[in-house]
What we know:
By secondary structure, this protein is an alpha+beta fold. It has one domain (4-95): Sulfite Reductase Hemoprotein, domain 1, CATH 3.30.413.10. The protein has 5 helices and 3 strands; from the N terminus they run E-E-E-H-H-H-H-H. It has a 3-stranded antiparallel β-sheet with strand order 1-2-3. A hairpin with a 2-residue loop joins strand 1 (4-11) and strand 2 (14-21). The longest helix has 13 residues, at 44-56. It is extended, with a radius of gyration of 20 Å.
Amino acid sequence: MHDVGMLARVRDDVLGFKIVVGDGLSTNAMMAKTLREFVPADDLIKNCEAVLRVFNRQDEERKIIGRTRINFTITRLGIDKFREMLDEELEGDWAKKEIDLDSLMFVDDEDGDAPAVDSGSTP
Length: 123
């Protein structure tokens, strides 16, 4: 995802993620900032969408194509202000809708897609 990182975590037997944003590479190398220490897995997609919604409204970074990354927004606003904007975004009606996570899961069925193997052949 565009400048958003997730690190899997378990807290009190709840699966979740630490969310970091705004890293940099090359001549502007920097570590990503911690946006959330822990977000339950059920809330991950909403938090990531909120990050993108907040970023997409930042016209300052769109003026120069080389600056259209979240790290420039984080540098300009600061992580605390960005987090505050994220919290406000998560109050919107769009965030109250349920997401069916099971419908987004991909189950790889290698056996179902593999060609038949002759029982006399060796692997």
